[in-house]
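User: Second chain of the day. Same drill as before.
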Amino acid sequence: MPWNNEGGNGGPWKPSPGPWGQKPGAPPPEFEEFLKRAQEKLRQWIPSPGGLRGRGVLALVLLGTIVWLASGLYTVGPNEVGLNMIFGRYTGKTAPGLRYNFPFPIGSVQKLAVTDRNTLNIGFSLRQDTRIPNAQMQFDIPEESLILTGDNNIADVKFVVIWQIDPVHPEDYAFNVANQQETVKAVAESAMREVIGRHDIMPIFTTERPAVEKNVQELMQGILDWYKAGVRVLKVQLQSVDPPEQVIAAFKDVIAAQQDQDRMRNEAQAYANKVVPEARGKAAAIVQEAEGYRLQTVAEATGQISRFNQVYEQYKKAPDVTRERLYLETMERVLGAADKIIIDQSAGQSQGVVPYLPLGALTPGAADGGRK
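Assistant: Same format as last time:
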């Protein structure tokens, strides 16, 4: 509790001196006096002359050690991987979150953005257009874009490579390759020149672009894996594949002629696909009809032969009867459809018909013919 002068010297509470031993109500000491009194208090706390130095240094060392150890805490972002090193030697990687490693100079941490996608333009570059806000201008780089094809032509190839650090082996990216960006660019340019060098120029302009992109991506990934570069190639995209500017007009004419040729070939193939099946159908119908006629004729001839043989067998058994029967059957076939009048004259003239009979009127259609 605060001290006071009430009660005199013989009271239950004696007046307490000031914080530095001055009497109550005395004016504060000067600054030098303040330092002297502070030193005296410290001497009372540290009895030996060298005790102040030793304990102070120990406290400072202890405090510095605590601060130094606490500086080993670090944070890894959600898109990053931390690489821990002790005395420059890699010891392991850490996931996102609050992590710890020995602080400098014993340990160090390298953070890599393994989920970020990096874009690499080859054959051209994009620069900010100062005349239009948020616009970019494209500048060609001929020493990168001009490539010799398999048929000794020159193609102007501009493409983009999209890649990222391999999240499985980020230590390879950090320690195996120096200047990783330039390494990926050199590998991409070399792979594109190799793939283009195996193709003719015309298929590259038309149908082989997807195949070229796939082959370049696979070749790049193989080379980078062999380097153990810790890089994953996500996509290779051709921006443009054109002939050199000096001959681009002639190449456009050649491409147009090639397209016309393909169109005419497709039309001819479509016409052939329509006509040939029709002709084959007609030919098959004619063949089937002829086969049917052949089978019918052979069957009829076989039947007639069989019938003749049967008649001949009966003729050998009874020639007169068979001959009479053949005669009657023949006359039946000949006279069966003809108009006939039969007169029986065996009874004589007295019992037969009258001498004159208009036989014409008895025949069907005779009346009409007479009126005509």
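The radius of gyration is 60 Å.

User: Great, on to the next one.
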